[in-house]
Amino acid sequence: MRFLKNILNFYLNSSIHVAIAVYSFVRITEMYFKLPPNENLDYFIFCGTITGYNFVKYAGVAKLHHKSLTNDLKIIQIFSFLCFLAMCYYGCLIDFKTLLLSLPLALLTVLYAVPFLSGFAKNLREISYLKIIVVAFVWTGFTVLIPLFDAGKEGTLSAVFYAIQRFLLVIVLILPFDIRDMKFDAISLQTIPKKIGIDSTKKLGVALLVFSLVLEFMSSTEITVKSPFMLFFFLMIIFLMRAKINQSKYYSSFWVESLPIVWLLFLLGFHNF
Protein backbone atom coordinates (compact mmCIF):
# COMPACT_ATOMS: atom_id res chain seq x y z
CA MET A 1 0.00 0.00 0.00
CA ARG A 2 2.82 2.39 0.84
CA PHE A 3 4.49 1.54 -2.49
CA LEU A 4 1.31 2.47 -4.40
CA LYS A 5 1.03 5.71 -2.42
CA ASN A 6 4.64 6.57 -3.30
CA ILE A 7 3.88 5.92 -6.96
CA LEU A 8 0.82 8.18 -6.78
CA ASN A 9 2.80 10.94 -5.06
CA PHE A 10 5.53 10.76 -7.70
CA TYR A 11 2.88 10.79 -10.43
CA LEU A 12 1.43 14.00 -8.99
CA ASN A 13 4.63 15.69 -7.80
CA SER A 14 6.42 15.12 -11.11
CA SER A 15 3.51 16.81 -12.94
CA ILE A 16 2.61 13.77 -15.04
CA HIS A 17 -1.03 14.12 -14.04
CA VAL A 18 -1.32 17.78 -15.00
CA ALA A 19 0.49 17.01 -18.28
CA ILE A 20 -2.10 14.34 -19.09
CA ALA A 21 -4.82 16.90 -18.32
CA VAL A 22 -3.21 19.38 -20.73
CA TYR A 23 -2.77 16.62 -23.32
CA SER A 24 -6.47 15.78 -22.91
CA PHE A 25 -7.42 19.38 -23.62
CA VAL A 26 -5.27 19.29 -26.79
CA ARG A 27 -6.96 16.09 -27.97
CA ILE A 28 -10.38 17.58 -27.20
CA THR A 29 -9.52 20.57 -29.41
CA GLU A 30 -8.46 18.22 -32.21
CA MET A 31 -11.71 16.27 -31.90
CA TYR A 32 -13.89 19.40 -31.82
CA PHE A 33 -12.34 20.74 -35.01
CA LYS A 34 -11.95 17.31 -36.64
CA LEU A 35 -8.18 17.62 -36.84
CA PRO A 36 -6.08 14.50 -37.36
CA PRO A 37 -3.97 13.79 -34.26
CA ASN A 38 -0.60 15.51 -34.60
CA GLU A 39 1.48 13.22 -32.41
CA ASN A 40 4.65 15.30 -32.65
CA LEU A 41 2.83 18.45 -31.50
CA ASP A 42 0.82 16.59 -28.86
CA TYR A 43 3.93 15.00 -27.34
CA PHE A 44 5.80 18.32 -27.56
CA ILE A 45 3.07 19.95 -25.46
CA PHE A 46 2.91 16.98 -23.06
CA CYS A 47 6.67 16.97 -22.40
CA GLY A 48 6.75 20.76 -22.29
CA THR A 49 4.05 20.78 -19.61
CA ILE A 50 6.09 18.49 -17.37
CA THR A 51 9.23 20.55 -17.97
CA GLY A 52 7.48 23.88 -17.36
CA TYR A 53 5.50 22.86 -14.30
CA ASN A 54 8.47 21.23 -12.61
CA PHE A 55 10.59 24.28 -13.36
CA VAL A 56 7.98 26.52 -11.72
CA LYS A 57 7.58 24.22 -8.71
CA TYR A 58 11.17 23.20 -8.02
CA ALA A 59 13.60 25.71 -9.58
CA GLY A 60 13.82 27.82 -6.41
CA VAL A 61 14.14 24.79 -4.16
CA ALA A 62 16.90 23.28 -6.27
CA LYS A 63 18.81 26.56 -6.34
CA LEU A 64 18.69 27.07 -2.58
CA HIS A 65 19.17 23.47 -1.46
CA HIS A 66 21.14 21.92 -4.30
CA LYS A 67 23.45 19.87 -2.05
CA SER A 68 20.73 18.64 0.26
CA LEU A 69 18.04 17.66 -2.23
CA THR A 70 15.94 14.70 -1.23
CA ASN A 71 16.11 11.55 -3.31
CA ASP A 72 12.56 12.15 -4.55
CA LEU A 73 13.42 15.64 -5.75
CA LYS A 74 16.58 14.39 -7.45
CA ILE A 75 14.54 11.77 -9.29
CA ILE A 76 12.07 14.45 -10.37
CA GLN A 77 14.97 16.61 -11.59
CA ILE A 78 16.32 13.75 -13.71
CA PHE A 79 12.85 12.94 -15.00
CA SER A 80 12.25 16.61 -15.86
CA PHE A 81 15.54 16.78 -17.75
CA LEU A 82 14.60 13.71 -19.79
CA CYS A 83 11.23 15.31 -20.56
CA PHE A 84 13.06 18.49 -21.59
CA LEU A 85 15.18 16.48 -24.03
CA ALA A 86 12.03 14.80 -25.38
CA MET A 87 10.39 18.22 -25.73
CA CYS A 88 13.38 19.46 -27.75
CA TYR A 89 13.24 16.35 -29.94
CA TYR A 90 9.55 16.76 -30.74
CA GLY A 91 10.06 20.51 -31.11
CA CYS A 92 12.41 19.77 -34.01
CA LEU A 93 9.67 17.74 -35.70
CA ILE A 94 6.87 20.32 -35.64
CA ASP A 95 6.39 23.25 -38.00
CA PHE A 96 8.85 26.08 -37.32
CA LYS A 97 6.11 28.75 -37.24
CA THR A 98 4.24 26.71 -34.64
CA LEU A 99 7.42 26.46 -32.60
CA LEU A 100 7.89 30.24 -32.80
CA LEU A 101 4.33 30.80 -31.57
CA SER A 102 5.04 28.65 -28.52
CA LEU A 103 8.03 30.78 -27.47
CA PRO A 104 6.03 33.69 -25.92
CA LEU A 105 4.00 31.16 -23.94
CA ALA A 106 7.20 29.47 -22.78
CA LEU A 107 8.59 32.89 -21.78
CA LEU A 108 5.48 33.57 -19.70
CA THR A 109 6.07 30.26 -17.93
CA VAL A 110 9.63 31.31 -17.07
CA LEU A 111 8.50 34.75 -15.86
CA TYR A 112 5.86 33.02 -13.74
CA ALA A 113 8.66 31.61 -11.58
CA VAL A 114 11.57 34.03 -12.02
CA PRO A 115 11.68 37.76 -11.06
CA PHE A 116 11.80 39.57 -14.38
CA LEU A 117 13.10 43.06 -13.57
CA SER A 118 16.35 44.06 -11.94
CA GLY A 119 15.60 45.10 -8.38
CA PHE A 120 12.01 43.82 -8.68
CA ALA A 121 11.60 40.92 -6.27
CA LYS A 122 8.30 39.60 -7.59
CA ASN A 123 7.60 37.11 -10.34
CA LEU A 124 4.26 36.89 -12.18
CA ARG A 125 3.07 34.28 -9.71
CA GLU A 126 3.31 36.77 -6.83
CA ILE A 127 1.42 39.63 -8.49
CA SER A 128 -2.17 39.83 -7.27
CA TYR A 129 -4.81 38.55 -9.72
CA LEU A 130 -2.21 38.02 -12.46
CA LYS A 131 -1.42 34.42 -11.47
CA ILE A 132 -4.76 32.95 -12.53
CA ILE A 133 -4.82 35.00 -15.75
CA VAL A 134 -1.33 33.89 -16.80
CA VAL A 135 -2.02 30.21 -16.12
CA ALA A 136 -5.34 30.30 -17.99
CA PHE A 137 -3.78 32.16 -20.93
CA VAL A 138 -0.85 29.74 -21.23
CA TRP A 139 -3.14 26.70 -21.01
CA THR A 140 -5.44 28.22 -23.66
CA GLY A 141 -2.48 29.04 -25.86
CA PHE A 142 -1.02 25.56 -25.79
CA THR A 143 -4.30 23.61 -25.90
CA VAL A 144 -6.30 25.71 -28.37
CA LEU A 145 -4.33 28.40 -30.22
CA ILE A 146 -1.25 26.36 -31.10
CA PRO A 147 -3.10 23.23 -32.37
CA LEU A 148 -5.46 25.39 -34.45
CA PHE A 149 -2.63 27.58 -35.76
CA ASP A 150 -0.67 24.48 -36.73
CA ALA A 151 -3.72 23.21 -38.66
CA GLY A 152 -4.46 26.61 -40.25
CA LYS A 153 -7.85 26.99 -38.54
CA GLU A 154 -7.11 29.74 -36.04
CA GLY A 155 -9.05 32.53 -37.78
CA THR A 156 -12.61 31.22 -37.54
CA LEU A 157 -15.35 32.56 -35.27
CA SER A 158 -15.75 29.08 -33.76
CA ALA A 159 -12.06 29.14 -32.84
CA VAL A 160 -12.51 32.48 -31.05
CA PHE A 161 -15.54 31.20 -29.09
CA TYR A 162 -13.68 28.00 -28.27
CA ALA A 163 -10.56 29.83 -27.05
CA ILE A 164 -12.65 32.09 -24.79
CA GLN A 165 -14.48 29.05 -23.44
CA ARG A 166 -11.23 27.21 -22.70
CA PHE A 167 -9.85 30.29 -20.92
CA LEU A 168 -12.93 30.44 -18.69
CA LEU A 169 -12.89 26.70 -17.98
CA VAL A 170 -9.25 26.81 -16.90
CA ILE A 171 -9.99 29.73 -14.56
CA VAL A 172 -12.77 27.68 -12.94
CA LEU A 173 -10.44 24.67 -12.65
CA ILE A 174 -7.94 26.86 -10.77
CA LEU A 175 -10.49 28.17 -8.23
CA PRO A 176 -10.51 25.02 -6.01
CA PHE A 177 -6.70 25.29 -5.84
CA ASP A 178 -6.92 28.96 -4.83
CA ILE A 179 -9.49 28.09 -2.16
CA ARG A 180 -7.21 25.35 -0.82
CA ASP A 181 -4.17 27.64 -0.83
CA MET A 182 -5.80 30.48 1.12
CA LYS A 183 -4.10 29.32 4.32
CA PHE A 184 -0.69 29.10 2.62
CA ASP A 185 -0.59 32.18 0.38
CA ALA A 186 1.13 35.34 1.58
CA ILE A 187 -1.17 38.07 2.87
CA SER A 188 0.00 40.34 0.06
CA LEU A 189 -1.08 37.83 -2.60
CA GLN A 190 -4.69 38.76 -3.32
CA THR A 191 -6.25 35.75 -5.02
CA ILE A 192 -9.93 35.74 -5.97
CA PRO A 193 -11.10 33.74 -2.89
CA LYS A 194 -9.10 35.97 -0.54
CA LYS A 195 -10.53 39.11 -2.09
CA ILE A 196 -14.22 38.23 -2.48
CA GLY A 197 -14.60 35.21 -0.18
CA ILE A 198 -15.21 31.52 -0.84
CA ASP A 199 -18.98 31.75 -1.43
CA SER A 200 -18.65 34.60 -3.91
CA THR A 201 -15.80 32.76 -5.63
CA LYS A 202 -18.05 29.75 -6.16
CA LYS A 203 -20.83 31.97 -7.52
CA LEU A 204 -18.33 33.57 -9.90
CA GLY A 205 -17.16 30.12 -11.00
CA VAL A 206 -20.73 29.00 -11.72
CA ALA A 207 -21.36 32.19 -13.71
CA LEU A 208 -18.24 31.54 -15.81
CA LEU A 209 -19.36 27.95 -16.36
CA VAL A 210 -22.80 29.09 -17.52
CA PHE A 211 -21.15 31.52 -19.96
CA SER A 212 -18.94 28.68 -21.21
CA LEU A 213 -22.10 26.61 -21.74
CA VAL A 214 -23.56 29.40 -23.88
CA LEU A 215 -20.34 29.47 -25.92
CA GLU A 216 -20.57 25.70 -26.33
CA PHE A 217 -23.98 25.96 -27.97
CA MET A 218 -22.83 28.90 -30.09
CA SER A 219 -19.75 27.12 -31.43
CA SER A 220 -21.02 23.58 -32.02
CA THR A 221 -24.24 21.79 -32.95
CA GLU A 222 -23.09 18.18 -32.77
CA ILE A 223 -24.64 15.99 -30.10
CA THR A 224 -21.44 13.91 -29.92
CA VAL A 225 -19.62 16.90 -28.40
CA LYS A 226 -22.51 18.60 -26.59
CA SER A 227 -23.49 15.60 -24.45
CA PRO A 228 -19.93 14.97 -23.15
CA PHE A 229 -19.59 18.68 -22.43
CA MET A 230 -22.81 18.68 -20.39
CA LEU A 231 -21.48 15.81 -18.26
CA PHE A 232 -18.19 17.68 -17.83
CA PHE A 233 -20.11 20.90 -17.04
CA PHE A 234 -22.04 19.31 -14.16
CA LEU A 235 -18.92 17.63 -12.78
CA MET A 236 -17.17 21.01 -12.77
CA ILE A 237 -20.03 22.54 -10.78
CA ILE A 238 -20.00 19.68 -8.27
CA PHE A 239 -16.26 19.87 -7.64
CA LEU A 240 -16.29 23.67 -7.47
CA MET A 241 -19.14 23.76 -4.95
CA ARG A 242 -17.50 21.10 -2.75
CA ALA A 243 -14.13 22.90 -2.66
CA LYS A 244 -13.05 24.17 0.76
CA ILE A 245 -9.93 25.36 2.55
CA ASN A 246 -9.38 22.14 4.48
CA GLN A 247 -9.89 19.77 1.58
CA SER A 248 -8.32 16.33 1.26
CA LYS A 249 -4.76 16.06 -0.03
CA TYR A 250 -5.79 14.77 -3.44
CA TYR A 251 -9.03 16.72 -3.94
CA SER A 252 -7.60 19.43 -6.20
CA SER A 253 -4.26 17.94 -7.23
CA PHE A 254 -5.81 14.67 -8.44
CA TRP A 255 -9.60 14.80 -8.71
CA VAL A 256 -10.07 18.36 -10.01
CA GLU A 257 -7.17 18.01 -12.45
CA SER A 258 -8.71 14.73 -13.64
CA LEU A 259 -11.76 16.54 -15.04
CA PRO A 260 -10.23 17.32 -18.49
CA ILE A 261 -9.19 13.67 -18.71
CA VAL A 262 -12.74 12.57 -17.86
CA TRP A 263 -14.11 14.98 -20.50
CA LEU A 264 -11.84 13.39 -23.13
CA LEU A 265 -12.99 9.91 -22.08
CA PHE A 266 -16.62 11.04 -22.41
CA LEU A 267 -15.88 12.37 -25.90
CA LEU A 268 -14.12 9.18 -26.97
CA GLY A 269 -17.02 7.15 -25.63
CA PHE A 270 -19.65 9.15 -27.54
CA HIS A 271 -17.58 9.09 -30.73
CA ASN A 272 -16.85 5.37 -30.67
CA PHE A 273 -20.05 3.83 -29.33
UniProtKB/TrEMBL annotation:
<feature type="transmembrane region" description="Helical">
    <location>
        <begin position="7"/>
        <end position="26"/>
    </location>
</feature>
<keyword id="KW-0812">Transmembrane</keyword>
<feature type="transmembrane region" description="Helical">
    <location>
        <begin position="41"/>
        <end position="61"/>
    </location>
</feature>
<protein>
    <recommendedName>
        <fullName>Prenyltransferase</fullName>
    </recommendedName>
</protein>
<feature type="transmembrane region" description="Helical">
    <location>
        <begin position="155"/>
        <end position="175"/>
    </location>
</feature>
<feature type="transmembrane region" description="Helical">
    <location>
        <begin position="204"/>
        <end position="221"/>
    </location>
</feature>
<feature type="transmembrane region" description="Helical">
    <location>
        <begin position="129"/>
        <end position="149"/>
    </location>
</feature>
<keyword id="KW-1133">Transmembrane helix</keyword>
<feature type="transmembrane region" description="Helical">
    <location>
        <begin position="227"/>
        <end position="243"/>
    </location>
</feature>
<feature type="transmembrane region" description="Helical">
    <location>
        <begin position="250"/>
        <end position="270"/>
    </location>
</feature>
<feature type="transmembrane region" description="Helical">
    <location>
        <begin position="73"/>
        <end position="92"/>
    </location>
</feature>
<feature type="transmembrane region" description="Helical">
    <location>
        <begin position="98"/>
        <end position="117"/>
    </location>
</feature>
<keyword id="KW-0472">Membrane</keyword>
